[in-house]
Amino acid sequence: MEHKIELVKKYFALVENFCADKKEYEDILHSEMSATEFPNLNTKVTRKRGYDEMFAGMETAKKILRSHHIEIHAIFETPEVAVIEATWTGEMAVAVRDFEKGQTLTAHCCFIFEFRNGRIFRQRNYDCYESFE
């Protein structure tokens, strides 16, 4: 089961570094990977992204965030699933919507990862953002 956690940590490290090079993810993400983000203060509706859409989202993040970090607090595992409790923080690089340049955003997150053939196959995010004020 340690393999799953190492995959998630490698995945988080690539995401934190705004890596959108698909080759870097070949041993981490399943080719049919999808990610679902459930409604929160930042995203009003459920968003499901396929493999290619995820990488487009990474490019967008690189344009609007100066930096971001995922701090893992707890990990729960079964043979097929890893659940991660974490805090995400991100600093805005530009003003977008109601966010100001330099503003720090914080979300308390639950990530649920499903695995297939030794890679991350499904990701579900439950992000609880702190007030944006």
Write the layout of secondary structure elements.
Layout: H1 2-16, H2 22-25, E1 29-37, E2 47-50, H3 51-64, E3 65-77, E4 81-92, E5 104-116, E6 119-129
Parallel strand pairs: 1-6
Antiparallel strand pairs: 1-2, 3-4, 4-5, 5-6
* Proportion of beta-strand residues: over 45%
Q: Biggest sheet, in brief?
A: 6 strands, mixed
Tertiary shape: globular
CATH class: Alpha Beta
Radius of gyration: 14 Å
Q: What is the CATH architecture term? A: Roll
Strand sequence of the main sheet, in spatial order? Answer: 2-1-6-5-4-3
Compute the average pLDDT. 94
Uncertain regions: pLDDT < 50 for 5+ in a row?
none
Tally of extended strands? 6
Number of helices: 3
Order of helices and strands: HHEEHEEEE
